[in-house]
C-alpha cells in the first residue's frame, strides 16, 4: 500500500510539473508603451531655457525661499484630508497587488469534525443507505487537510497581477498629482494673501497722504487761502480710500481661512501666523522649462494615464484566458474513524490527490464580449493618455505666455508709478506756490493710488502665474516619487 501511495503521488506530481512546464505561454496582447509626437522644445521657450530641469529631489515650492509657505505645505502634506485619501488609495492598490499574487500560490485548509449518528427506525429492515441499522447509534471522528493549486498554464493569473501592478503604480501617480494640486493651491492662495496685504499697505499709505492733504486744505480754508471746494474734495478722497480698506481686510481673512481648509487646520491656528504681513517672495524671471518629452514622466496625471493603459491592456489577457482550460492540482488527506480509540492509527488515514481540468465549452459568447469590452476600455485609456499629453503641452505653453506677459506688465507699471510719484510731487509744489489749483493735486494723488494698487495686483499676478507654471510643468523640478 505504501508503494502504491508513493507511486500515485509521484504520478500526480509529475502531471502537475508537466502542466507547469507547458504553461509558458501568456495569452492576450503584450503591453506596447504609447508613442506621442512631441516637439523638441516648447514654442514659447528659448534655447537657454530648453535645458533639462535639475532632479535634485527638492520640492518646487522651496524655490520661493519663503519659510512660512514651506511650513504650510509641509503641514498640509501631513494632515490634509485630500492627501490622506490619496494615501488610502495607494494602500488599497498595494493590497490588490497582494491579492492578485496569492492566486499563483496553493491554498490549504484544515478541518475537524465529530458526528453522533442515529439510524431511523422507520426504514425497512436491513442496512439503510447511510450505513446504520434501525435505531443504531454511531460516532464519526474526522480530521484532515485540503489543498488546491491552480496552475497558470495560459497566463490569466499573471495578466491579473500585471493589471494590479499597473493599477498600483497609477495610484502612486494619483497621489503625486494630489500633492502637486494641493501644494499649488496653497501656494496660489498664499501669494493672493501676500498680494492683498501689499494692497492694504498701499491703501493705508495713500490714506495718510490724503489725510495730510485734507488737513492742509482745511487750514488754508480757515486762512482764506483756499476755496471751500478743496477740503470737500480732499475729504471725499479720504472716505473713498477708507471704504476700500475693510474690503481688503475681509479678503485677507478669507484667504487665511482658505489656507486653513487646505492645510487641514482651523483658522484660529493660522491667524496669528498669517495676519502679520510679509512681502511677496522674489521670483525667478527666467525659470528653466526642460523639454516637452520631460512632461511624460514629470506630469503625474500623464504618468497615471499611461499606467492605466497597461492596467486595462492586461485585463484583455485575463478575459482571453477563459477561452482555455483551467488546470488545478488538488489533494485531500486526513484521518477518519468510527472508534475514538482507533482514530490516530494508520488504518484511519485516507487521501486523494491528482490533477483536474475545467474547460468552459459554451458560454453564449460571454467571453468574447468581455474581451471586446476590455479592448474598448484599453482604447479609451489610450485616447485619454493622448489627450492628457496635449493638455500638458497646452498648460505649459499657456502658463509660459501668461507669466512672461505678467512680468512685462509689472515692469511698465513700476515705471508708471515712478512717473506718477514725480507728477504728484510737482503738483504739490505748484499748488503750494499758488500756481496750480487743488484739483490737480487730487488727480495726481488718485492716479498714483490707482497705479500703486495695480502694481501690487501685478506683483501678485506674477507670483500666482509662476505657481501655475510650476504646476503645468508637473511640479517644476521635483523628482518622481515611486514610494
* SSE class: alpha+beta
Helix tally equals: 10
CATH class category label: Mainly Alpha
What's the architecture in CATH terms? Up-down Bundle
Q: Helices and strands, in N-to-C order?
A: HHHEEHHHHHEEHH
Helix content: 55-70%
Largest sheet: 4 strands, antiparallel
Q: Which percent range describes the beta-strand content?
A: 5-15%
Number of strands: 4
CATH topology-level name: Outer membrane efflux proteins (OEP)
Full CATH superfamily name: Outer membrane efflux proteins (OEP)
Overall geometry: elongated
Measured between the Cα atoms of the first and last residue, the distance is 56 Å
Number of self-contained structural domains: 1
Compute the gyration radius: what is it?
39 Å
Membrane topology: Lipid-anchor
Family: Belongs to the outer membrane factor (OMF) (TC 1.B.17) family.
GO molecular function: efflux transmembrane transporter activity
InterPro entries: MdtP/NodT-like, OMP_efflux
Describe this structure in words.
This protein is α+β, with helices and mostly antiparallel strands and 483 residues long. It has one domain: Outer membrane efflux proteins (OEP). 61% of the residues lie in helices and 10% in strands. The protein is built from ten helices and four strands, in the order αααββαααααββαα. Strands 1-2-3-4 form a four-stranded antiparallel beta sheet, with helices on one face. Helix 5 packs across helix 6 and helix 5 (229-263) runs parallel beside helix 10 (438-472). It is elongated. It starts with a helix and ends in an 11-residue tail after the last helix.
